[in-house]
Amino acid sequence: MSATPSEPATEEVTACLIVIGNEILSGRTRDANLSYLAKGLNDVGVQLREARVIPDIEKVIVHTVNECRAAFDYVFTTGGIGPTHDDITSASIAKAFGVALRRDPGVVAAFERYYAGERGIELNAARLRMADFPEGAEILNNAITIAPGYRMENVFVFAGVPKIMQAMFDEVKHGLVGGKVILSRTVTGHLSEGAIAADLDRLQALYPDIDIGSYPFFGKGKFGTSIVMRGADATRLEAAAQDVRALMRDQGVAPIDGEPE
Amino acid sequence: MSATPSEPATEEVTACLIVIGNEILSGRTRDANLSYLAKGLNDVGVQLREARVIPDIEKVIVHTVNECRAAFDYVFTTGGIGPTHDDITSASIAKAFGVALRRDPGVVAAFERYYAGERGIELNAARLRMADFPEGAEILNNAITIAPGYRMENVFVFAGVPKIMQAMFDEVKHGLVGGKVILSRTVTGHLSEGAIAADLDRLQALYPDIDIGSYPFFGKGKFGTSIVMRGADATRLEAAAQDVRALMRDQGVAPIDGEPE
């Protein structure tokens, strides 16, 4: 469970996302990073196994980061690395690792060129806070902002703004050491899940290597159920999908490949 | 921290949301319940302090529920109470509380009327699973579905489908024992947060009773920063908002009340 990224790929490589921000917990802002991260991680064989949304409170961040970095192969944090007083992620990460915050001269030089040079904006004390990193951090530049994210061992520290978070993740994604890539197949039918539940239960027993999920939907006068099959073996996945299509037809319902429209 | 709902209101009443579902962690489905719950809880003086997204794995559900119900005044779970094999929330909740699952005769009778009676649908074994509750559960009916949610001590167990989850929450919301209601005020300006970070830091020190958050935004050719102030005292909140407007004007920027358009 606690493989570091430099170790060889195992069958199952796990990740946890820690969303840091009062604005998510107050309901002001809806997180948009989880699904992007989940899909991107799966592309490289890493399974997002848990996500936590926590407030901008140092002791909570320290505790959560330490718990999660011990329990998962990779941890990603989003939020709290900007220039303002409520951006306390880096100080908290430093505390979690028991190291000091250190100002990085290379990042300061880049800020000087960017702010004072190109833009004629004051490189003030607040902006310089974004050049402070926990001792030992690997600095990760990105295509969108001058302020970098970074990595401490198996913990990646990213911005919360989705465009920036995504740019930061895209930079590191292909450097992650993954395991099996999980493939997914969806079959949808306009029937209630209760009608096929017993059949699905039998199917799940026949396909222990495939995770079969049943997701009902409602709305716009339509209802139905999507059956999502996830597994590493494309042949087995197609066999399971065939069986799901058949059990829908047994109910007099035409199966549709994919999600509902 | 571990007040039960029947105890008198304290100053701060906390809650945790546990989102149960592989479909969220795979990125297939975006959670839509957190923000609804956060806002609804705040209406009645309960603060959402953490959220966790976990997979449909019994031992993870048991561990997470037990950890969170000890740490927060209220816990809400969403997902996994339907009729299919992957709906394992109720069995897991029973295990977390060390009790058995018990079929409720009143719910069975309601199912018999609804399925077999009104709709002429078979009340099969799968649908009957939705009449199984952990021993001691208080059954919570709702306006949308015949299948109820329930409450075990300080843990509320709801469906994952947003419309159903919201209906279930609306039924219990005004029965929650809350503390202070947190008010919110937002001032937005078309400036970078780095320009006002030092001023905001000073302001936060002047208003320790107000949580001041700074949230930059980008997009559609516009950029700027929203300052969100949260606190229980409307007068203090307005004073802080006045100060934020003033510091934006000092930067030559017209403050806008509310979120960016």
Structure description:
Two copies of one chain form a homodimer. Chain A is α/β, with parallel strands linked by helices. Chain A folds into two domains: 13-175, MoaB/Mog-like domain (Molybdenum Cofactor Biosythetic Enzyme, Chain A), CATH 3.40.980; 183-257, Alpha-Beta Plaits, CATH 3.30.70.260. Chain A contains nine helices and twelve strands. In chain A, the strands form three sheets. Chain A has a six-stranded mixed beta sheet with strand order 2-1-3-8-7-6, sandwiched between helices. In chain A, strands 10-11-9-12 form a four-stranded antiparallel beta sheet, covered by helices on one side. The longest helix of chain A has 17 residues, at 234-250. The model of chain A is unreliable at 1-9 (pLDDT under 50). Chains A and B meet through helix 1, helix 2, strand 2, helix 6 and helix 8 of A and helix 1, helix 2, strand 2, helix 6 and helix 8 of B.
Which characteristics define this entry?
Molybdenum Cofactor Biosythetic Enzyme, Chain A; 261 residues; 9 helices; homodimer; 12 strands; 26% strand; Alpha-Beta Plaits; 2 domains; alpha/beta; disordered N terminus
Tell the overall outline of chain A. elongated
The top-level CATH class of the largest domain in chain A is Alpha Beta
State the CATH topology of the largest domain in chain A: Molybdenum Cofactor Biosythetic Enzyme, Chain A
The major β-sheet of chain A equals: 6 strands, mixed
Q: If interface size is counted as residues with C-beta under 8 Å from the partner's C-beta, which chains form the largest one?
A: A-B, 66 and 66 residues
What is the beta-strand fraction of chain A? 25-35%
- Helix fraction bin of chain A: 25-40%
CATH architecture of the largest domain in chain A: 3-Layer(aba) Sandwich
Oligomeric state of the chains in view: homodimer
Widest β-sheet, arrangement of strands of chain A: 2-1-3-8-7-6
Number of domains of chain A: 2
Count of helix runs of chain A: 9
Structural class based on helices, strands and sheet pairing of chain A: alpha/beta
Distance between the termini of chain A: 38 Å
CATH superfamily of the largest domain in chain A: MoaB/Mog-like domain
Poorly predicted spans of chain A: 1-9
Question: Kindly state the mean pLDDT of chain A as a whole number?
Answer: 93
Number of strands of chain A: 12
